[in-house]
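**Entry details**
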Amino acid sequence: MRPYPATLGAILAGGLARRMGGGDKALLMLGSRSLLASVEQRLTPQCESVVLNANDDPARFSESRLTMIPDSIPGRPGPLAGILAALEWAAVHRPSIAWVVSTPGDTPFIPHDLVTRLHAAREAEKKPLACAASGAHNHYTIGLWPVDLRHDLRHALTSEGVRRVEDWARAHGLATASWPTEPFDPFFNINSPADLIAARALAERADTHR
């Protein structure tokens, strides 16, 4: 039994990947696996189940067995919309799950204790939300969200024009769980072709620090 409440994992892959020339960044290859498969492999053992937030034709993710859930509001307003989609999906399809953990589909080295430490941080700091950090950087899209806040988040997106995860999270109270950046940053994300080259070099080091 896990030492924390049942948690749904949500991999966010709803963006347009403009800096990578468009397309689905999560499907880029890192060694023998796609970025998506790498994230899924690390996240799945930590969660009751895992879903994929992505938009448009689901056929392009046919090699993944993940349930694909599109944004539930139009216009691709960013990662908050993906978090909202996961919260609303959990409420309908997994009513016994009260928490969602989110991570982008381009962070292939997320730690194996991500969910444990996020829950521990929110409990220790008595905050309703938690996000990950490494070094001096907070990673707001890598966070823990209560399903009960789904209505508030929908209102923030549709009526208040909130777009930044940080803004919405800090309005409710945000705990932080921090990881070291050595021997590598577990939240290294891939935004450019150069980042993908660097990630391929990091992959072997990451596997030796499982």
